[in-house]
Amino acid sequence: MRAENLPATTTVDRLAPDVSVVIPCLNEAQTIERCVQSVLAVFEEHGIRGEVIVADNGSTDGSPELAEQAGARVVREPRRGYGSAYLAGFGAARGDRIVMADADLTYDFAEIPRFLEKIDQGAELVIGNRMANIQPGAMPWLHRYVGNPVLTGILNLFFKTGVDDAHCGMRALRRDVLPRLDLRTTGMEFASEMVIRAAKEELEIAQLPIEYHPREGESKLSTWRDGWRHLRFLLVHSPTYLFLLPGALLTLVGSLVLLTVLARVNVFGRQWDVHAMIAGAMLTIVGTQVLALGLCARAYGVYVLGEADALFERWRSRFRLEHGLLAGAILFTTGLVVGGVIVGKWIQRGGGELSEARLGLLGATLVIVGIQVFFSSFLLSILGLRRSA
Predict the structure, then answer these.
(1) Whole-number Cα distances in Å, 246 to 134, 155, 286, 375
(2) Which fold, 3-236?
(3) pLDDT in tens, 160-186
(4) Which of 98, 149, 353, 378 has the lowest tally of Cβ within 10 angstroms?
(5) How far apart are the C-alpha atoms of 160 and 162, rounded to whole Å?
């Protein structure tokens, strides 16, 4: 019998698999045997030379032993977390193509050939899309109509991925793209990280409609905790939406309030005074600081993490450290001049009571913003030292 016709569980197959199916497992004794057997049946039916890797995440119910008896290779990862299990499984995978699926029978392993076909057609990452084929009782309404659509929508807004179901657990990818993805997260946000990193690396992403079945066994998903972890991850990896846009909005609104008070413009038939100016000064100062943090975050992504950022590169090519230092110095000096004018008026009036709250707020705001711009420019330059070294 020729090697290509041998059953999927033979020694030859285990030495040289073409496909690795990685299944994370935490106390899935109720289903893990059937999962492994289903995958091996698909291998045999379609003549796939493959391996089943069960990444056990500290099970205490005998799941690893059951998986091994069913024909899987078990990798034990004591560090808890969905991402931790997958990272261990990926590290052990030997196939050129990797298929991911959960151990709770929510996904049909008969779909594996369709995922592999997409990879063979040129896709580097294939993501299942469950949203049009969810069986009754398979997904809580909060996840189906709120959590998944909202988080997927935010992900697409921030990273322009075009993915319809960013949290589907059945996926396939080429093993040679793993170094480019550089996956690191250990929790449920691992699903979002994979999509984000694929988009940033401009990988060819394909989608595949699949069915989603009711799970068997206890769910490991925590709605609010894991939802927050996904949202937090999206925000942390998008400095534009976390820092730059809010910072720009705060600065703009604050500056407009300051100018409105100084110009004594009537707003809705009323003239704003010192209290409105205090609010404007606060918004301007906070906004400037948030903007600076956003620029530093994008610089860190480009200089340290090696991310491609065309907008930041254009900005960097036009502005240098000296431009920031000059802008900060001008703002700081203008604030000092305003302060000098106040002192001059105070001396002129014999050192008595002085009512120059508007000018005082303006001068203080300019001094503070000038200092922020000046030293933030130095910080941006420090982050860029790694690039020029």
Answers:
(1) 37, 18, 10, 21
(2) Spore Coat Polysaccharide Biosynthesis Protein SpsA; Chain A (3.90.550)
(3) 888 999 999 999 999 999 999 999 999
(4) 353
(5) 6
